[in-house]
Amino acid sequence: MGKYVLLRGKSGFRFNLLAINGQIVGSSEVYTTKASCLCGIESVRKNAPAAPLSDLSVGAESASPCPRFELFTDKAGEFRFRLRARNGKIILVSEGYTRKDGCLKGIESVRKNADSKVAE
User: Fold this and answer.
1) Topology of 3-119 in CATH?
2) Which of 37, 58, 85, 100 could form a disulfide with 31 if both were Cys (CB 3.0 to 4.6 A apart)?
3) In the chain, where are the structural domains located?
4) Can you tell me the distance from the alpha carbon of 91 to that of 106, in angstroms, rounded to the nearest whole number?
């Protein structure tokens, strides 16, 4: 099982979700309080396992309801994903992948590791 790592910065708290191999598979936004950051982790735990995938890299608009994973290509041509909560807010984003299959594996890793413990 992976783990969530809490990080404190000048402007607040954020978290990374690490896979069992220690690789970061997703990062959060910055939260103003530790409590709200922990709520973000709970949202990933709740939403990631069953969230459907919307592949925006093929140019289609997402019509699926939230929660959902969105796979897309960035301006540099890399594949990325984001996880949206039921309210539509982005709760987790990935780093860039050069290959689409790597990005899909990243999404599966989030699903697999969503229920991980928090390491502070």
Assistant:
1) PH-domain like (2.30.29)
2) 37
3) 3-119
4) 15
pLDDT at residue 68 is higher than 70: yes
**Residues in Cβ contact with 67 at an 8 Å cutoff, skipping those fewer than 6 apart:** 47, 48, 50, 51, 83, 84, 85, 86
pLDDT level of residue 91 (50, 70, 90 thresholds)? very high
Amino acid at 99: R
The structure tokens 């019509």 sit at 63
Residue 18 backbone dihedrals phi, psi, to 5 degrees: -105, 140
Residue 60 is predicted with a pLDDT of 67
Residues 50-60 have pLDDT tens digits of: 999 999 988 76
Find all residues with CB under 8 Å of 108, minimum gap 6, and list them. Answer: none
What are the residues whose beta carbons fall under 8 Å from the beta carbon of 5, sequence distance 6 or more? Answer: 15, 16, 18, 118, 119, 120
41 touches 15 (CB < 8 A)? yes
Structure tokens at 93: 């984003």
- For 1-120, where are the alpha helices, taking DSSP H only? 34-47, 100-113
